[in-house]
Amino acid sequence: MPSIPLHPRASSSPTRVNNPLPQLLQTPSGLALLELQGTINIPSQDNNENNQSTTSSPDDPRDPNAAVFETPIGKLMFPDYSPQFTAPDDTKWMKRVYLYVGRYQRMAGEVKKLPQPLALVQRRQKESGAADDGEELEIVEVVKYKIFFKSRPEPVNDI
Amino acid sequence: MSTQSAQSILFTHTAPQQAFRLLELPADLAELLSSDNPPTLEIKSPAPSSQESNPTDPSPTDTTREYINLCTPTQTYRIRQVQSSNSLHILRPSDDGIQRGDLAVIGAPTSTSTEDPVLADLNLSETMTTIAKCGSTLELHTPQEGFNIIPILEGLLGRYDSDSDGKSGSTGQERLAESADRRRIIEGVFTDVPVSRMQCERAWKEVCAFVLPDTGRGWMPTAQVKIGVWKRMVEGAVLQGIDLGKQFLVGDVWKSVLDEEGEGEWPRELFEAVIRRVCEGGASIDKEGCVRWVGETYLEAVAPTANAAVGRSEFLNAWKDHLPEGWREQAAFSKLTVCGIHLVSICVWLTEDKYRFPDPTTICFVNDDDRQKLKRNVSTDASASTAAKKTRNWHELFKNQKRQKR
What we know:
The structure holds two protein chains of two kinds.
Chain A: E1 4-7, E2 32-37, E3 53-55, E4 68-77, E5 97-101, E6 105-123, E7 137-149, E8 154-155
Parallel strand pairs in A: 1-7, 2-7
Antiparallel strand pairs in A: 3-4, 4-5, 5-6, 6-7, 6-8
Chain B: H1 2-5, E1 8-15, E2 21-24, H2 27-34, E3 41-44, H3 48-52, E4 69-71, E5 76-94, H4 117-122, E6 127-141, H5 150-156, E7 158-160, H6 172-191, H7 197-206, E8 210-212, E9 217-221, H8 223-240, H9 250-257, H10 268-278, H11 287-302, E10 310-311, H12 312-321, H13 333-338, E11 346-350, E12 361-365, H14 368-389, H15 394-405
Parallel strand pairs in B: 1-6, 7-9
Antiparallel strand pairs in B: 3-4, 4-5, 5-6, 8-9, 10-12, 11-12
């Protein structure tokens, strides 16, 4: 079996998008990690077409014409974090993160430092026209923190 | 209320999702990757054909089959996939904050009026979206028994023994032109050896492998050939007055092993491979390592199995005879057993039958595979017997399997 190269850096630099996460969770690529117990059930695309906004994402190099759907799930909140007032070495805000799912459910979680950094590995996109000589992988980002929801959702009032 | 004033980030799900793998990075690897100029890593697995065509290892153990390794230029990690009951989502910021169909599900009004105070408060232009979900992570670990790659290398190389004819080496002019070929052949072999570059090169040197560009492939000499080359070198050096204990020119020694017509019994590539093996860098022989190598190689050549065991004193004398005059006293059994990597390299067989063997103790070579087995037997015998008793106990079984892996 041939050896597969794993490139230490991404081939394409990500498009700059304003990153709303607290500074600590921001990475050069903008990618972040969220862990939760259980799964988020997303309705299949067919019966959900009416509810979705359709955009063609310009930063998806795979197929510029492919439709990309974004389905709203909820809201992410860092109640004790303020970009203006939280000092960089202050870690108290990490203890509380909320994820509202739909209108009436809330999960309480925290921001945790990973015991070992995690590399996010993806197949390297080939430039069209380049000879296809086997698979290549790349480390798109190395993340050191995760947003972690270990408890079940609790019911809340509509806020 | 603090939650009201805090920043709200819209959380969405992007379809279609992307494929990601999460790879846990040990501290040393994380450091390497965060360096200024990180190397390209390699993901390698053993070639299936090399396992099948490997005659020395007809029944590969579980640990040697079907694995994937991650290699830095110098190190090798085994990859293990660990399933998680939690789902890990990969998020990225989304700039698509304007036209959203149904925000009602999350409590925002359906009318997307910017004057709406609630919507303004939610600051919904800021969005994180999940683009991938992973149900498992990849862990890296280094097996304690190391990576026994010599059998794999053996399967990829031709066996060069003393009757190998027509595989003559090449002359100086050709050698220059062939160096690219040579490189390409070695690269091809290393691709199928599932460890790091450095470990490949070390193993290549360890087994005295060499390339004959004419044949288009790599070769691995048998112990008989290696010890033959070495013996000839020692004899040639004596004739030419070359002191192998000091610095010498490889070309001088090569000339000393040629016959009157300037013909070598072996290709120069093989000769150089043997020199490389006994010289630990530079142009002088590492005496300690060389003495050990000569002893081991000789033993492998004359007594490869327990059935062919030779008498200890007989062996010791032959060993001494294969060393340069001044080194004879270096040969000692302690040299064979103390050395670092080859912990169980030599097994001394005590035979009861003193009549058949005048010398009560004989000695034979124990190859790498058997060394692994010997080591493993010691540690797993006890656990295997308890497992046999409680085969119905799921946890016990699992525990023992885990222990054997380490």
